[in-house]
Fold each of these.
Amino acid sequence: DVVSFGQEVQVVDPEVRAHVYSLVTALGGFNGENADCYVLGDDALACLRDIKRWLKLYDEKINRMDVARCLGEANLVNGDLLPILSNWWTSGQNNKHMSRIALACLELLVPLTWPAEFHKDMTVNHHRHTPYIQQAQVRYKRGLLSYGGSNLLRTVIRIALPSMAVPRSERTTRDEGILKLMLYLFRNISIISQSARLAAEGDEEETSRSVTINAFAEQDVFALLLTMCSNVGDDFSQQDMALLEILFHLVKGVNVEKLFMDDVQRTAKRTDELKDLLSKESSLKREYAKNAPTRHGRFGTMIWVKRDDAKMSTVSGQDVLKDEQTTLLKMDQSKKWNKPQPRRRQEELSTNNSFDTPTHLSSTATKNLRSFVEEFLDSGFNPLFTHVRKAIEREAERVTDINSRQFFYTVSWFLEAERVRRTYQKYTHEQSKGKAKEMEPDSFALVAGVLNQETFVFLNRAMQYGLDHKDWEDINAEMRCFTQILLTVQEMSKSPLEEDQEIAENIQNRIFYEETTHDRVLALVRGYKDQGFGYLDACTELSHVFLRMLERYSKENIDLQIRSRRKARRKKTAEKNATTNGEEEDPEEQASEDEEIEDAVKVAKERTFDFKRFSAKFCTQKSVDTFFAFTKFYKELDSEQLKRAHRYFYRIAFKQEMSVLLFRVDIINLFYKMIKGPGGLDPSKPVFKEWEELVRQIIRRLVKKIEQRPALITELLFSKINATAFYLEYGHEKQTLTSE
Amino acid sequence: DNPELGLGLDEEVKVTKKRQPIAKLDEGRLLSQNGIPRLRRTAKSKLKLKGKGHEFSDAARILNFYQLWLDDLFPRAKFADGLAMIEKLGHSKRLQTMRREWIDEEKTNFSK
């Protein structure tokens, strides 16, 4: 209802509010005489249980958030629950009654800190309360992390310790429940962060990731996590998903490279970054100064641009006197109309799962997280991830939809961490050469839990499922995981241990054996439309890594066999098929085959792998468009990403001899702008040289081609059709009868 | 004398002025004399490329040539926008056949 300004809006039923407030008041308070001591009310335990009942029977049952809102306004968490817990901690935790009260507090803390997300089926009440509750949760988190110097996280662990000590076979459901409560509280703490949509209160630093990590390290939460992760198969099988979630929310967005640098390197890196930023700024200024007017703003210069048919255009401003390029640029810029943009896809609703946003850690937090990560890799990686994978595969009851995405992202993060740790170890070893003993080569057994056939099958199936259902966020995580697996295997094949090499060989064989995998990578690259930069980054990286590894591997193993599945028409055409199957099918036949998909069967067949033919599949308009879309972000890309795009275009133009695909005015326009500006690449970067050379070569070819085939003048405007592209490149028709 | 004869003579006639149709960059415009035919006509005389050693100035010449052509054809759109619109039009049936024709024309010219 519309209420005029100044009138009080009742967002919550007043009676509900009165009930809840009276319960909070009856819980206890600070005594007048002894102001810093929290005194429990006579019936505190019953009050706590009543509050819990309100949350359950009012909020949950009729799907509102009123009670949670009232509790936030009454300051229950910071005013009552936290003081009670800290009292219990300091009084020695032996009193049975007090222990029960502490547990009751924990039971309230978990639902109150449960992440309040925007989701599809929200009621009016949800919309009303969610922003307030998000803000309140940040307050709760701040209280939990820094309540008066007491160790509340340790207190929470203490509550669950008795249940942890019981062997799993003897644990009651109540014990399991308590463990769950503890882990979910930690998970909630790691999720809660200042919502970007709401105004910050100025001290978001107190609830940042760094502070969370430091608190986890100081109060032994990390130790607890390590214990549970390494025993996940034996003692803590029900807790695997909660552990996975905590890990996911701790590491998402953290830059692995920076994590493993030592202080000297990190400061060097920071100075580099600062230097980069400063030089970027000064080059911006230089760019401006180049074109800035040399006289005052009303100097009033105007020039004519003579055009065909005695036409003239006028452009004003002194900067246009300089050269033709700036004049034309200005002519273009002064146009008012913009092409209407297609509407963006709806933004992902869940804010807690985005892992594309980078997170920065303070140096203490980096140190803490690194030691945790190292210990986790040493002890917890294999047991946890094997267990989680099995649970997801058999669709255990505790598994939610989000878990598989979290699994793949976390696996990819830790695989990268393991690789970076190895290079870091090598580096420190070389630094202390002579002093330390010869370094013993390490085997990759620490991460073997995700390098087995079962994981590949799981990953493949998940990727196919995501592709079919257009779950782009899932696919993003899966592509990262696949890329990291490939990179790890590559590292393994370089290992000095013979056993590692053998295993790597085996794995590569298995990965490259299935043609469906190859086709899927292709489909992922071609399938980019408007999935956002995260997808673009992941799919270009995957195709880059995949192609290069496959290229090398097929060179080393010339007799590489792959299993290809072809569609073959049933019945009458079956015989015909048997004769033509070995030959290359032309695209039209392929298309007509696709139409008859209903009466098609799949025929599995082994054949030798031809890398040239496979990489030709990457050189199509669709994949060029994807990499072109990626390159458009060139100002934000780092040198590794720019190199990736460079290699791809190089492959197109010179390895596959399909430079015609790049001969499009918009692509040439982008390339020209990247090198010659305004707003081009930084010329002092080493990547710039490579790009300049590439663009120079491409343009040289273009000029030559225009002279050879004047028809290119019109074709330069369009994406090429397959049939004509071949002619434009080679000057003759494609031979249709090619034999393998 | 019966006003409710239903002829509606007494009702006021509303005159709504039709909006001037907005110029569009479509197949017709692209294939008109000012469009691609002109591009083909003028390319020989206007576009003088220097070749090896002048790559970037050549690229600038090519880009400028297209920009001025596009500005004549459809002054409303910025260069990049116009290019994107034309590229999209290139997928249509009519343009595909036209493009094929142009290329075939060149092929026969060559064989002569």
Note: Chain A touches chain B through 47 residues (CB under 8 Å).
Amino acid sequence: MSWLHLIILLPFIFAIFVPFFYKYLPRIHTGWFVFVVPVALFAYLLSYIPLIARGQTSYETVNWIPSLGINFTAYVDGLSLIFGLLISGVGALVVLYSVYYMAKEREALHNFYVYLLMFMGAMMGLVFSDNIIVLYLFWELTSVSSFLLIAYWYQRKQSRYGAQKSMLITIFGGLSMLAGFIMLSIITDTYSIREMLGQVDQIAAHGLFVPAMILILLGAFTKSAQFPFHIWLPDAMEAPTPVSAYLHSATMVKAGIYLVARFTAIFGGSVEWFWIVSTIGIVTLIWGSVFAVKQTDLKALLAYSTISQLGMIMSLLGLGSAALYFGYGNESAMYTTAILAAVFHLINHSTFKGSLFMVVGIVDHETGTRDIRRLGGLMTIMPISFTIALIGSFSMAGLPPFNGFLSKEMFFTGVLNASELNIFQMETWGILFPIIAWVASVFTFIYSMILVFKTFTGTYQPKKLEKEAHEAPIGMLIPPIVLASLVVLFFFFPNILSKNLLEPAMAAILPSFIEAGGGFDVKIYAWHGWNTELFMTIGVVAFGSLLFVSLKKWSWLYGVMPEQLTLNHAYDLGLEKVEKASHGITAFHMTGFIRDYLLYIFGFIVVVLGGAVVMLQGFSYDPSGNAPVSVYEVVLVAVMVVAAIGVLIAKSRLTAIVAVGVLGYMVALMFVNFRAPDLALTQLVVETVTVALFLLCFYHLPKFKKEESGVRFRAANLVISLGVGTVVTLIALSAQGARVFEPISTYFEDSYELAGARNMVNAILVDFRGFDTLLEVLVLSIAGLGVYTLIKLRLAGRDNE
Amino acid sequence: METLMSLLIGVLFTVGTYLVLTKSLLRIILGTAVIGHGVHLLLITMGGLKTGGPPLLELNTASFTDALPQALILTAIVINFAVTALFLVLAYRAYQELGTDDMDQLRGTEDE
């Protein structure tokens, strides 16, 4: 157990103590105690930067289930360090923000912080795990804690709906991912990602390559809200705003991005990976940005914007994987730009999206609504929030002087480079990427402007607001201010990140480049000269402004698409249909009639046994060893058949009971005939008692109704019972001629010497196999006790009377 | 003889199965009794029929029939009897409490 492991597990350990703080120190907001954890994590992770910047990595192993190869291996490289810093850094700010956002008096804070710490620990474990099974464990923990956080206000129906939806979708993806992981471990015979990297060629040549890839991508796409699994994210906005800011913009939704980046080294360079990841990403990008414009709820707008931005990062990772196809060299250098853009935008997105969510939370907190139709004119009332929103939105829209501009330019460079690719059929389709990217950027610009100007400019409508608007307390403003300053800082000094974080992250995503002796020299400049990317940005601003001003004239277009065609509708309908169908199937076969169940059972016997006899050619008939048949026996058999049919067709029960009695006595005669005196004796006595019991029962049965009616003829019953009879006969006939070994009964013929008994059957019963007899006695005793209890114990009847 | 017995056992299984599939509780119990007879006869038939004298050493015959299936059947008869007796009393009590022996009326309710 190293320091690194302790740090990963710290949130879980601390979560145990949170309820005690809440209960015994009620005067201090519990969030202050929790604040220590992410700050400690952040400070500790900062100490790794010099090591990582030197191009080194670090790992520590704790054995968990070593016999299965499942060990908790914590592995720190550039990629996981970026995520670790984001998780702890944004986590610290979110906890600080939540101290002011969540009222001490009203909210169940102990629940909130326990869930939040659980999430933080799970996320840390996810990004630092090298073992894929442990990674999956933490992956599901993030799903569970996210589920708990979304439904934090569990009294609300919408919260529960959103939590259930996100749970179903992310767990579906998680399970697919587990299947993919298991396939990978089958191919490589290891659970360690680092060890897999040494076998990339074997993996690519294996038949399970594509299935494993698709299943793992399903996990990544559902978690990162990619099309068409993005539908859970807008509904997850029912969570408290700190949760939305933390989970659903900065960290959890990036777990899928992390997974794709982590596995690029294994799957990247193949045509399937390139196309799936980049196409899904670009579709998500345009879909999210177009639908974000439609939203009137600020959080829903930000949710769609998150979807869109995640799609952008995803498509960049997909396009950048082409670099692995070429290997290290001059050709690939232009595609590594896409990877760099993805990592850089990942950081930028966390900063500006986190601050925007916090601002929306402030607006909600101070005015009582998040609906842009009721907001407006808050600029002079909430100047600080306005400034932060302006910085965040302009960065999101990709304008200078904010960091979004840099990553947007790099994004354009990435797609332009990719469109010139001459592999993977990009000659024909490649041109679509810059076009879609440009259109999506226009929509991104529009919704970013809506966010700022519809909320903060225009006329102030105090009558529509639930509270009188005023600026938030300073504590609530500090976290978004910190994030907004980072937005500006990264624009002016982007290269503080490059050497220490971006280059190691690139090395982690493309490890084969480092092995080939290459390195990454990342230099980000705000000014590239008058190139295509800049003209594209100018176009985005021009068209975006035009469309934003004329928004009222064309927004009716959103009403054209009917509700029935949306993905949410399809999800709801699908869920309802599945429930109905499964209920229908159950109701169809679980009728409650015992006869139906018996029909299934007998039918199954006939089909399986009969089928086996036919299919395996099991039937053989060899009458050579048969005993001769005498007239006496033929008569006996004839009487039994008549008696059996008599039971069947008897009109009255008395006849049937007597016929069964006849059958029993005939069986006793059979036993006499087959030289089994003990059996004959027992059978006679038992049959007499049984018939007496039947008659007793008959005497107490109702006199009215169906007493005299014959057995109702039912074709299905007849077919099934004939089938059972035939199958039993066939098997009995086949078994006769196929005795493989001599019977052991000659051993029992020494019973006098062995047991002092001249009656072999009795010797077997009480001596050779006396244990059977003991338990048979027990059966009889239990039956006797059962009969006694049934007759004597009448609790329910007493209540009724 | 074994062939004849196999056919007889088939008839007993057919009749028993058919009775078990009917509505009346008493017929179902009768059906299980008939199937029980079928099983006992199947056991003794599979052990081989009439290959010697009864398994009693006093008789001094040259060979004896197989004693093991007989012991097995004896155990089975007693257990079968115990179960049938319990089942009958259960049917009797069910009729006393519920007023019916029709299996269709004894079916479970919708919302179990």
Note: The mean pLDDT of chain A is 86.
